[in-house]
Amino acid sequence: MKVAIFSTCVVDLFFPKVGQAMTEVLERFGCDCYLPENQICCGQPTYNSGYLKETDKTLHNEIDSLLSVDADYIVGPAGSCVAMLRSYKNSLKDDPEYAQKAAELADKSYEFSQFLYRVLGVVDAGAQLDAKATYHRSCHMTRLLGEATAPFVLLDHVKDLEMTPLPNIQNCCGFGGTFSAKEPEISQTMVDEKVDSVLSTKAEILISADPACLMNIGGRFSRRGEKIKIMHIAEVLNSNVDVKRIKYKKDIEKVEQ
Amino acid sequence: MGIATSTKPFVERVEEAKKDKFMQASVAKAQDAQWDKREAARKELGNWEQWRDLGEQIRQHVIKYLPDYLEEFADNVEKKGGHVFFAKTDQEATEYIKDLAVKKAVKKVVKSKSMVSTEIDLDKELMKLPGVSVMETDLAEFILQEDNWDEPTHIVFPTLHKNRDQIQKVFEKLGYTGSNEPEKMAKFARKYLREYFLQADMGVTGCNFAIADSGMINLVTNEGNADLTMAIPKTQVVVMGMERIVPSLKEAEVLDNMLSRSAVGQKLTSYCSFSGKRTDDESDGPDDFHVVIIDNGRSNALGTQFESVLQCIRCGSCLNVCPVYRHIGGKGYGSIYPGPIGAVLSPVLDGYEEFGDLPYASSLCAACTETCPVRIPLHELLIEHRHVMMDKLHTDHSLTNTIMKTIGVGTGSPILFKSAMFGANTASKVVSHHDHDSVAGFLYETGRIGKLHKPVPKFARGWTDIRDLPQPAKSHENFRHWFKKHKQEQAAKGGK
Amino acid sequence: MGNANREEFLDFLAQKAKRPRHQLHEHPFQPLNDLPETTLSGKSQDELLEIAQKNSEAVKVDFKKVTTENLGKLLDEYIAAKKIKNLILPTTDKWNEFNLDKWQKEQAATYWQPQAAREVNIKTAQSADGAVGFADYLLAESGTITVATTAGQGRAFNFLPTHYLSIIKKSDIVPRTRQAMDKYDSDIKNGVLSTSNINFITGPSNSGDIEMVLVVGVHGPLDMTYVVVEDL
Ligand code: SF4
User: Fold this and answer.
1) Measured between alpha carbons, how far is A85 from A65 in angstroms, rounded to an integer?
2) Where does the record locate the signal sequence feature (chain A) (predicted)?
3) Which among B390, B477, B482 is the nearest to A49, CB-wise?
């Protein structure tokens, strides 16, 4: 199966490890990965700030680029950015040139863990990690993309990984794109509460499927000098993999029958 | 008081709110408790998403045919001997009610909680009349009134920012000598207010929903003060926002169910009442029944992308889930309508000059949109406001504007972005640190940027003022570079 | 002022909305689902009674079941337990229906009087420390009694007395708000019912206004008792 990787600007600029881990996991499950050259950014920074005109060009470019590879699916390591890709369908519905393309893009775009769980049917990626961890649920992935199950199922199956629930998991970490820079005073109180919640779980690792949230929460951890390890879910699922452990939804269903 | 509750600039209000630790703790506690209650109540009802569809449909329908429904309602009120006045502005509304009070030689006015009456500043206007006194009878509003007309900070729990000791002090001024136990203080208020009720000659209520086909109004409360307000005084004035209307008792009943669950996590509040002018054979209830239907800026939303804001049933649920409200509370917003609904509604009612900051006071986490019982796309409307202000009104001439436009250009052009990626590491090197021992993992593998100082623009400092930033990856270490190499290796191996 | 004031206002709205007036008759409201009717439907009267009891108790109602034969005795016990000295009763012909004719005549009670002035009835209700009245329906889902105001049981009757007891027939238990509203709606429209006020009352008055601590009994009655008569 051919997969176009939607790398996202954050991963392109800052986090090579996240992109690598995702690629390696996808390849392990037989995906033939491509990285469309001209992709840049989903357009959220300007769109969410109200610069709709300026954003149009960004959206057009992203669509042209991601569709330039004839892939079955488009997979990205960030729930928020994937939700944005899917929303093009709505925001460009009156665009004579791009409406159709935007719809096509939306239909085949998935967030990484969502793709593993919903499309490939994976429940156990074969990973092992001996640690106590907690998971930060990103708002956009949960509410706009509507994916609140996949990462939890996949993490629950990682061998030796002890997941502890994060209190007030429903609350935003205070990132909010440009909000974090435009309203730092409010953003700070939000991220501080999130850091405190994470600390209260006594987890050694904080995991998420949205690198931008991790950049925010991790950045505050670092500034406060509090100890934590930050991992993207792709890195976790790429840890100490034994392919013999890999399990699919259909395997479990068989057992349950 | 009007809509604005403060003349201070937004940043200052936020700073003050941040210092108010009691407020933050009580809002957080309330939000968490309400979260559990509300979700449990919705779950027990079942099919919540379909109920939302129905709630949205009812509200959209009445907004679409608003003039027709208002006409039908007014006809039915008048048929039963009541009166309806249409007020375009707050002033028209208060003048009408003041005239009425004078005509009826009113001395004592009792009020039950109504956001619209706060919006039009009715209490203060009525008190300008010689010999007229006004009493708020909702426990929370009573506390605010007796505390020198303090401002409400929540549309359902107006005194969320006050603790029991503060309330005790307020009551002591009225002769209360008991402890700070809520139970005891509530009993005191009951007795105090009951005496006033019995002498009242005018009652003022709000209106949760006006019933078009019967000319009744529907009020949803827990304390019973609204019902006493509608039972005892000879004259009743209903102040209602023009959008608070439903076709019949049935739709009112549907929305009461949704409102009670969303606002307080109850199946129904203690009192849901449907009420109008007294009939001839009844002995209590108003002889004189006046409904004042108020526009006061609401019509600004009609026919625009903001029309759906008129669907709001003021359940306060969006405040109760909002992480920004959680930290800055009602006072931070500086509007009697705070939280997400306030950030959308206040600029519609009163313009961007006064409330242009509010649409930015959101991380767009969409918790509000997710919880809204009538499916108002609140976070999208916040983006719409930003859009109107930026693209259309060009209100922001600051450096932020230039930066955002540059990002717009940069993220729209592959060549520019690639050169930016190439240069990012070099450009930011000056300020990076490598002493990142507290946070392990991928985040600071390439280095860490600490607090930036002037002359770096404020917008960029916003991030690093409170948290560290990862050092951008060097161009030969970034993901694209790795991917290319990885593909070459695969090809060399003769793999895929 | 009347019509000019109204027409100008409504025309302005239509103009703002860019939608002409008087389109509603061709587009009446048609609900997109029937959840209000189907939720909690298909239950027997026994099941509804059980659900009603559970939900009433959840809102701090003292819930009692009784047969007509023992109803009078139960009311006596209630009055004694609450130490009620000034009882208020409605003026109604329901006493007979509930076999309470004799009981009612024995009471040294005051009455909400159909012909009396506002001040008189309000004063009576205010002086009463207990009320025994009748409800039209009991809603199982929420533990709610519904009462339409009549000449003999006015509005303040339900709000001013300190303790409040409501008598309901078991056959008048309905699943939820919708069924009660359907009946009120058609009774009003058919002229069967003439009332200016319908109260849906769910437990005693309460408030969470002080630190969100639930306080029972703010303006309305301090406590509520529902008595379901099982053989009616
Ligand atoms: S916008 Fe929605 S959630 Fe917020 S108060 Fe209005 S109805 Fe409730």
Assistant:
1) 12
2) none
3) B390
Q: Which CATH class is domain A122-237?
A: alpha beta
E-only strand ranges, B43-123 = 83-87, 108-111
Query: From CA B95, how far away is CA B104, in angstroms rounded?
Result: 14
**Residues of chain A positioned with their CB less than 8 A from the CB of B363:** 139, 172, 174-177, 179-180, 187, 190
pLDDT at B93: 97
Strands of A2-5's sheet, edge to edge? A32-34, A2-5, A73-76, A109-111
CB-based contacts of C77-81 (< 8 A; 24+ apart in sequence): C78/C132, C78/C165, C78/C225, C79/C130
Q: Which chains touch B (3 or more CB pairs under 8 A)?
A: A, C
Out of B324, B374, B382, mutate this one to test ligand 1's pocket (max ligand atoms within 8 Å of CB): namely B374
Question: B35 CA distance to ligand 1 centroid (A)?
Answer: 15
Least CA distance to B362: which residue of chain A?
Answer: A179
Instruction: Report yes or no: C104 at the B interface, CB cutoff 8 Å.
Output: no
- B311 touches B237 (CB < 8 A): no
Structure-derived torsion over alpha carbons of residues B111, B115, B116, B122, reported in degrees to the nearest 10: 50
Q: Which pairs from C83-88 meet CB under 8 Å and 24+ separation?
A: C84/C129, C84/C130, C84/C163, C85/C129, C86/C110, C86/C127, C86/C128, C86/C129, C86/C130, C87/C128, C87/C129, C87/C130, C87/C131, C87/C132, C88/C112, C88/C124, C88/C125, C88/C128, C88/C130, C88/C131, C88/C132, C88/C157, C88/C161
* A18 in reach of chain B (CB within 8 A): yes
Query: How confident is the model over B260-292, as pLDDT tens digits?
Result: 999 999 999 999 999 999 999 999 999 999 999
B59 touches chain C (CB under 8 A): no
Chain A residues inside the 8 Å CB shell of B410: 40
> What is the architecture of the domain spanning A2-118?
3-Layer(aba) Sandwich (3.40)
> Is residue C24 less than 8 Å (CB to CB) from chain B?
yes
For residue B496, name the pLDDT band (cuts at 50, 70, 90). very low
Pair of tokens at residue A98: 């791009």
Take residue A74 and report the two structure tokens written for it. 């488009």
Do A and C touch, 3+ Cβ pairs within 8 Å? The answer is: no
- C-beta of residue A157 within 8 angstroms of C-beta of residue A123: yes
| CA–CA gap between residue B163 and residue C209 (Å, rounded) | 10
> Domain map of chain A by residue range?
2-118, 122-237
Domains parsed from chain B with CATH numbers:
10-300 (3.40.50.10420), 399-492 (no CATH)
ipTM for this prediction: 0.96
Q: Considering chain B, what is the average pLDDT of its residues?
A: 90
Position B395 scores a pLDDT of 62
Could you read off the pLDDT of B427-457 as tens digits, one per residue? 555 455 545 578 888 888 777 888 887 777 7
Query: Which of B:250-309 have CB within 8 Å of C?
Result: 250-251, 253-254, 256-257, 264, 266-279, 281-285, 293, 295, 299-300, 302-303, 307
Mutation target to probe the C interface, by most C beta carbons within 10 A, among B88, B110, B283, B306 is B283
Predicted model pTM? 0.92
Contact partners, residue B338, CB within 8 Å, separation at least 6? B153, B154, B155, B319, B325, B329, B330, B331, B332
Confidence (pLDDT) at C3: 80
C-alpha torsion B321→B324→B328→B333, nearest 10: -100
Return d(Cα C198, Cα C92) in angstroms, integer: 17
Domains of chain C, CATH where assigned: 45-229 (3.40.50.10420)
Candidates B155, B314, B337: which one to mutate for ligand 1, based on the most atoms within 8 Å of Cβ? Answer: B314
- Note whether C3 contacts B: Cβ–Cβ < 8 A: no
What average pLDDT does range B164-192 have in this prediction?
91
